[in-house]
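task queued by scheduler; priority normal; single chain, no ligands, no partner chains; default sampling; output format set to C-alpha cells
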Amino acid sequence: MPKYLLRLLSLNFILAAIPVISIGLISYYIAAGDIENKVKEGNMQVLLQTQMRVEQSLKTLELTSLQYVNSPLVLSSLNEALTADDFLKLRDLSRGLYNLQTFTPIREAYLVNLNMDWLMSFAIFHKLSTSPDRDLFLSYAKHPNSLFWLTENPKTASDAGADPNGTAGMDGDSAVEDTSSPKSIRMVYKIPVVSATNQPKGLLIVEILNSQIKTLLSSNTNLGDVYVLDRNGQNFLYEDSQADPNQQIYTMVSEKVHQNNDESGFVNAVINHKEMGISYRLSPYNGWTYVSAVSIEDITKQSKKIAWVTFFVCTIIFALVALFAFYGTRRMYSPIKRLFEFTKDIEVEGQQHKDELVSIEQRFRTLFSTEKKLQEQVQGQFSQLTEFFVLKLFTGQISDKDFAYRAQLYGFPAEWKRLGVLAVQIDTLQETRYQEHDKELLLFAINNIVGELVPQGERFSPVLLDQSQVTLLVCQTDDEAELKAHFFQTAELIKQKVREFLQLRVSIGISRPFEKASASVHAYGECLEALKCRMSLGNDIIVHYEDIDAGKKDLEVTVYTQLKLLEDQLINALKLGDMERVDLVFEKYISAIVEKDIHFNEYPVLMMQLISKAFQLVQEQGGAVKKVLGDKATVDYFLKLNTLEDIIKWFKKTLFEPIIGFLNHQAESQYVNIANQMVKLVHEKYDQDISLEACASTLNFHPVYLSRVFKKEMGINFSEYLADYRMNMAKTWLENTNLKVSEIAEKLNYTNTTAFIRTFRKIVGMTPGQYREQHNKEG
C-alpha cells in the first residue's frame, strides 16, 4: 500500500473517531447539565410565581383593608361609644367588613375600638372588655408598626407578642397554637394608620385560613413540592397533627437564609436517605421563605436515557464513517495525486510541505485567499457606502449631478417619473414587551423588513435617520392618484408586517411626490411634519403631507388668555392639594387646546408655560424639581411624547400627583411648627395683651391662616386655649396665694374684674371665691 494512502487512511480513521467520541461525550454532558439547570430554573420560576401569587393576594387584602380603615365611616366611629342600638352605624361598619371578602376569602375580621371599648366581627358586636381576646388585642396595640402579620393562631396576649424589631408586613413571633380550630394567619392594621402617638385608637384584624394560602401554592409533579416558611423557619401551612417529615429541609433552608444571608439559591442535600435538590427564595415583603424540593433521581433519570442513546448512536456513526473512510480513501488517492501534479506550477510562499494533501491545500489557500479577502472587503464597504450615500442625500449634501454619477456606480435605479419618501417611526414602547433601550434594535429590524418588502428596483437603500426609518421610493407614473395610492399601499404593507413580526405599532409619514433626487431632504421634512399629526390623531396612522392643514400658525389672543387663566387655576388647585379640582381644570385646559383647532405643532409651545409654572411652584416650596418629580419630569422627555394621551398621562402622573404629595407634606410640617410657636407665645405672654393678631404680627402670617392652623392642630380655637390657660393660672394662685380676685384679674391682664369672674365661672363652673372656699375646705 502506498505510504500516502496508508497515512491518509489512518488519518481518516482518527478524524472519524475523535469527532464522534467528542460529540457524544459533549452532547451527553451538555444535555445532562441542561436538564439539571432547567429543573433548577423551573423550580425557581415556580417559587417566583408562587411568591408573586401569594403576595399579590396579601397586598390586595392590605390595600382593601387600608381603604376601609381610612374611610370616613371607620374614622368617625372611633370617637363614638357605639351600642347594639346603633343599628344603622353597625350595619354600615359590618358591610365594610364583609366587603373585604371581595378579594380574598377571609375566615374572620374584627374591628376593635380601644378607646370606646367595643368590638365587632362578622357575627358579633359586644364590649371589648368582655371579650376573651381582650388582652390579645391590647398586645397588638403595643406593636411598633401600623401593619403586621401573624402566622399562627395566638392563644393569649403573652403568647402572641409581636417582634418589636419587626417591620410593617412582617410576621410576628410564634404563639401557642390553637389546635381546636383550623390554622390561620392574621393581618393587623392600627387605626389611624398614620398617628402622632404610638397608642392607636382602634385595630382592624383579619384572619385568613392557611388553607386559602395553600391553594395559591403551585404543585407540579415534575418540579417537586412547594413549602412556605415563616421567619422562624417553620412551615406554618402544615396542618397534620404528626411531626412534619420535611423538618430537616426547613432547618437547612433556615440556616442558609438567616445565618448565611443567602436570599435565594439551590442546594443538594440528603434528606431521609434520599438525595434532594432544594430551591429557596426569601421574600423581602414579609420575610417568608418559599422552598421547592425535588428528588435528584428524578432530575437525572432522563440523563441516563440520553447517555445510552448517545452511546448507541455514536457507535453506529463511527462504524459507518470507518467503513466509508476505508473504501473512500482508496478512490480518493488517485484524484489527489493528479490534482497535486496539476497544481505544482502554483507558487507558494515559503517551503512546500512534503505531505501532498497539505501541499495542495497551501496552493489553493494561496490562490483563493487574496480573492476572498478582496471580495469581502468590497462587499462590506459597498453596503456601507450605499447607506452613507442615501444618508447624505437626505441631509442635503448631494447635488443632482453628483447623484446621477453615484447612483449608476452603486446600482441604484437610474430612471423614474416621480420619487416619494416614507418615514416610519415607533409610536410607543409602553404596554409592549420591549424596553426603551431596545428602540435602536427595533428600528434596525424595521429597516430590514422594509428592505425585504419593497423590491430593490423600486427603492434606494433604506436607512435609519435620527428616530426614523426612511425609504426613498421610485415610481414610473405621473398620475397623482396612482402615486398616492401606491405610496399608501406600500406604507400599509410595511405597517402590517411590522405589527405581525414585531408586535409593534408604528406611524408612517408620506411626502408629496417630487422629481429631483436633491429634493429628498425637503420630502423627509414633510414626512416628519406629517408624523406630528399623531399629537391630535393618535398612534398607528398613515398620513400624507398634503392631507394635513399646516396653515394655522397664528393663535388667537383669546386662546392665550383662556389658557393663562386655566393655568393659574391649576396652580391654585395644586397649592390647595385638591386633586379632583386639578383633574377638572386640566380637562378644561386640554379641551381648550383641542376645541380651538390649534395646530398640533403648537401643543408643546402652549403647554411649556404650564410646565414652567409647575416647576416654579416646587422650587418656591423649597424642593428640587428632579428630587420631587423624578427623572421623567424634564422638557426633553416631554418633547418626545407623540400623542395627546401620552401628554395627559405625563402631566397627571409625573407632575400633578408628586407635586400635591410634596406640598401636603410641606404643609403638615409647617402646621405643627406654627401651632407650637403660638402655644409658646401664650405660655410666655399670658399676662399681657396677647391676641391672634399679635401672634400673626410676631410670626408674619395672616390671622385667618393662623386661626385655621391652630384649630386643626390643637382641636380648639386660639381664644379658648388662651382663656383656659389663664384660668388654670388663676386656679393655681387661688389655691396657693392670698391674692385678691381683683389682683389676680389684673395679673391676667383683665381690666374688668367682672369680666374675669364671668370667664372663670364659664370655664370652671363656679366663681373664684367659691373655688377658693371649696379648696380651703378640702385642704
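post-processing summary
- The first strand starts at residue 108 and ends at 113.
- The two ends are 137 Å apart (CA to CA).
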